[in-house]
């Protein structure tokens, strides 16, 4: 049972463009929604996170948009750079346990 | 601080062999967990521990055992390896929050790539 659905599976963006990754969840008990970034051969690292009492959170070029009624949230990467090329995972947490989406492989072309 | 460390980085086993994947953290985190990562499936929770002496099962616990005798160490044991256990394994730890409740931020180790032939 996939509780967090992530799309697209892969994404190719030109340098300077906007990358958008979407996630949807089912369990209304989730109360924390982080995004992790993973480079090849490395473990995932927390990128940005949001709680359901706000609709948007921005940190530099990275923004999470959260729609509680639709049970959806998305990651926007503005002015995408080749160094952003990585796999991105959305996740949802309940009682400290993370459920991950399937991942999006982002490639930013120079 | 070294953070979360995992050994070995790579391992090849034959079907039926047993082995232990090591995980250690030097941040005095109570909450630790093990995940496996498979292509197209994200990370799935195998086992977790909320403190020394306390462990519990995650989403995919079959074929794996864990123990937590100290705060620092959380080894994962494969009792009889199967090809279906070929995967990348990540250990993670979580810092404590207020009133002893764990926060949600997890710090991941570099992973162990396991191949079972």
Write up what this structure looks like.
The complex is a heterodimer of chains A (110) and B (117). In chain A, strands 2, 4, 5, 9, 10 and 11 form a six-stranded mixed beta sheet that branches. A five-stranded antiparallel beta sheet of chain A has the order 1-3-8-7-6, with no helix packed on it. Chain A is mainly β and 110 residues long. Chain A has no helices and eleven strands. Chain B is an all-beta fold and 117 residues long. Chain B has no helices and eleven strands. The radius of gyration of chain B is 14 Å and the shape is globular. Chain A binds chain B through residues 4, 6, 9, 32, 34, 36, 41-46, 49, 89, 93, 96-103, and chain B through 4, 31, 35, 40-45, 48, 58, 90, 92, 94, 101-111.
Poorly predicted ranges of chain A: none
Mean pLDDT of chain B: 90
Anisotropy-based shape of chain A: globular
Q: Main sheet of chain A, how many strands, which sense, barrel?
A: 6 strands, mixed
Q: Keywords for this structure?
A:
heterodimer, A: mainly beta, six-stranded mixed beta sheet, five-stranded antiparallel beta sheet, 11 strands, globular, B: four-stranded antiparallel beta sheet, 0% helix
């Amino acid at each position: 049972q996939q509780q967090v659905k992530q799309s697209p599976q892969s994404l190719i963006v030109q340098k300077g463009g906007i990358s958008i990754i979407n996630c949807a969840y089912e369990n209304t008990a989730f109360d924390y929604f982080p995004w992790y970034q993973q480079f090849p051969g490395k473990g995932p690292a927390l990128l940005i996170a949001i709680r359901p009492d706000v609709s948007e959170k921005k940190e530099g070029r990275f923004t999470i948009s959260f729609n509680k009624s639709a049970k959806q949230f998305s990651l926007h990467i503005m002015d995408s750079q080749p160094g952003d090329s990585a796999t991105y995972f959305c996740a949802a947490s309940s009682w400290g346990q993370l459920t991950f989406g399937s991942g999006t492989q982002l490639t930013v072309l120079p | 601080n070294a953070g979360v460390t995992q050994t070995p980085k790579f391992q090849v086993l034959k079907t039926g062999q047993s082995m232990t994947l090591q995980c250690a953290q030097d941040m005095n985190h109570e909450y630790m967990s093990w995940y496996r990562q498979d292509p197209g499936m994200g990370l799935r929770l195998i086992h977790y521990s909320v403190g020394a002496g306390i462990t519990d099962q995650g989403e995919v616990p079959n074929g794996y055992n864990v123990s937590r005798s100290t705060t620092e160490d959380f080894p994962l044991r494969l009792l009889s390896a199967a090809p279906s256990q070929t995967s990348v394994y990540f250990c993670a730890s979580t810092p404590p929050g207020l009133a002893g409740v764990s926060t949600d931020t997890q710090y991941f180790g570099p992973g162990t790539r396991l191949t079972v032939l």
